[in-house]
Amino acid sequence: MATEILIKGIPSRVLPQGQTDFQREGIPVRLDRYGSLYVQGEILKIHPLADEGSYFLTNNGQIGITTALVTAFAALTPTMIIVNNDSPSNPAAKRLYLDYIELLVTVAGVATAATATFAAVLTDQGNRFSSGGTNLSSNIVSPNQDNALRSSIGQVYFGGLTATAAQLPRTIVGQRMVRPAVSATATNVLQDVVRMEFGSTDTLPSIATGSTGALQANIFQSSLKLPPVIIGPGQSILVYVWAPTAATTATSYLPEIGWWER
């Protein structure tokens, strides 16, 4: 005689209460409203994350933000800081999974002896934000209109930032080239786009490069495929963008950032 197994679960379209690891007591499995088991990766796109209220975005509308005149990597002058503001003592605390960053140039940088623009990504313990820049946290929204506007545990800062001292930093991306210089006096052009995809399995389009000239002088879309970046409660992501040159006018970017929390 065949053995019958009955699996009981609770329908939960929204994200249920988180559970701590290694609980001995059994808990019901999670079902969607049609009775199917929730499993990660059942849809290749990220719509299920938005549907359950785990996906968030922030931007600065149509207003560019001026960055600092940074000519070399410096640990205390990031361009962006993302903080997981959940409490490390919360047993149901969530992790923050960075999806993408897109930067649209609204004011081109001016310099002397320009070469290229570079980027780096680090993670660290604690809230590394100290001062400066623009706080984009109040602009955080869920793309699911049924969800509350601000139920995120993220905090996002962008622009001419000053960070607190490093604690236990991890260098995730040491240095990637974002864009070759337009000329000896211009680091980029108006409406350039920098797209950073974190943990992407898609093949991003390659960008042809060559000597300084007509190619670089056109609008340039830089697509960077970067490693996955995940931070726990009370931790930070730091993104650095710099141009090793004697800069005289800093680049302004219009930022857009997407991530999910689980």
Describe this structure in words.
By secondary structure, the protein is mostly beta strands. The protein has one domain. The protein is built from two helices and 17 strands. It has helices at residues 47-52, 214-217; strands spanning 9-11, 29-31, 55-59, 65-66, 80-84, 96-107, 110-112, 116-125, 129-135, 154-163, 170-180, 193-198, 221-226, 230-231, 235-242, 246-249, 252-261. The strands form four sheets. Strands 3, 4, 6, 12, 13, 14 and 17 form a seven-stranded mixed beta sheet that branches.
Quick gist of this model?
The chain is mainly β and 262 residues long.
Look at the helices and sheets and give the structural class: mainly beta
Unreliable stretches covering 5 or more consecutive residues: 208-213
- Summed up, the helix count is 2
Cα gyration radius (Å): 21 Å
Q: In this structure, how is the largest beta sheet organized?
A: 7 strands, mixed
Secondary structure tally: strands: 17
Total separate domains: 1
Order of helices and strands: EEHEEEEEEEEEEHEEEEE
Task: State the helicity in percent bands.
Answer: under 10%
Report the sheet-strand fraction: 35-45%
- What is the arithmetic mean of pLDDT? 88
The oligomeric state of the chains shown is single chain
- The rounded distance between the terminal residues' Cα atoms is 42 Å
Shape: elongated
